[in-house]
Design goal:
Ala_racemase/Decarboxylase_C; De-COase2_N; binds ligand LLP; TIM Barrel; pyridoxal phosphate; globular; 22% strand; 16 helices
Amino acid sequence: MAATDFFSHSPTLPKTLKSPLNQNPFFQIPIVPLKPSPRLLSLKAVFSPNPTKTSTQTSPIHHCFSKSSDGFLHCEGLKVQDIMESVERRPFYLYSKPQITRNVVAYKEALEGLSSIIGYAIKANNNLKILEHLRQLGCGAVLVSGNELRLALRAHFDPTKCIFNGNGKLLEDLVLAAEKGVFVNVDSEFDLENIVAAARIACKKVNVLLRINPDVDPQVHPYVATGNKNSKFGIRNEKLQWFLDAVKAHPNELKLAGAHCHLGSTITKVDIFRDAAVLMVNYIDQIRAQGFEVDYLNIGGGLGIDYYHSGAVLPTPRDLIDTVRDLVLSRNLKLIIEPGRSLIANTCCLVNRVTGVKTNGTKNFVVIDGSMAELIRPSLYDAYQHIELVSPAPPDAEISTFDVVGPVCESADFLGKDRELQTPAKGAGLVVHDAGAYCMSMASTYNLKMRPPEYWVEEDGSVSKIRHGETFEDHIRFFEGL
Ligand code: LLP
């Protein structure tokens, strides 16, 4: 089609949209000019804590983001709309610090009576401020790269509460892990060789766990299943004896501390963890029978969350721990868990602004300023993340079914498909929920959409920036002096 033909057509309206307000979504709704970017202090001063906060906190399904009766979305009592108008740019990530605390407390309470380590999986979200907060709350850290290890050390995590995982750990990173005294999971024959070499270079004996693949089906998307027999992670149980002999052969370099497994992610049935734990304690029995004094069972992470906001009752941290408690106690073991998503996902939204609404063929689209660059889970895994508007749409706004898409030059650039929404005005705020895990940490700068800033609502109801947004100048810096 020639460019002139293209422009001679006015945008087709969604067939279902009838109200005058929606008849030309491109031109009729003025965007209120943004306030100049306030500095942190003025942001702190703008908002006050929600007086009704404590009453909602006691609810077992308390969401830090909730719609009030006037149709405005709140985060810990603050209007998301107000925060959106006050920050320097959109999209941005908005967290609740109290929700992070509540999530950790839920795990701590569940673990009462057990000797345990909560190893937060840094890959889920590597914001330094969040890591510092989790460390202050007593968490350890689970690392999958040398840089995650360096970041954990920067956040002052206790190295003896850190676990270094991975199927391709590099020698230089293993040396650092050995020097600092973190637990290292043995993933393969060559990995064991490298851990031995690292121990010699660091002149330190390394506490290792054998990552065993229990071959329990986690019943999740294949991209996030890890514990099956054809997985690239861990060792097959039939090779266990080879690894035990190899550890025995290196008494100066390796101390076998326990066994580890990680089945997969987004698991919503705790029976799956139970099945794996039964197998794992049997392996521990076999290992102990050979004279090894192993203390730790690490059951990995993987607990799912309520992405659908449908009111479904999903297992809680207590359900997870209770399902393995008797096994752990029966063998007098210390339990390591490695939660990522269930600690951080529900604490955050990606806040976007609606750029416009359009229709092509049978599809209605809400186009927002956020995209697969900032949040790739829907594009990559077809993952559902709940979407809603932050403020009430005009009273005559029609409810329609929309794909919520970004501006990135890919048809895979969608945040949600077939979502029933009130037709939003240009400039309206729209959030993608449960964006605390594997969203910012998987963000890219594709199409030169620079990674967004991050904010959190603090306990006193003030809002603080916890990460600067990346800028065009940051990109240009990579070429300086070349
Ligand atoms: N431990 C190990 C060894 C892991 O591989 C993982 C996640 C975790 C712990 C933490 O699992 P969580 O509790 O967060 O489920 N990008 C995907 C998730 C990949 C998870 C990879 N491993 C997503 O966006 O859903």
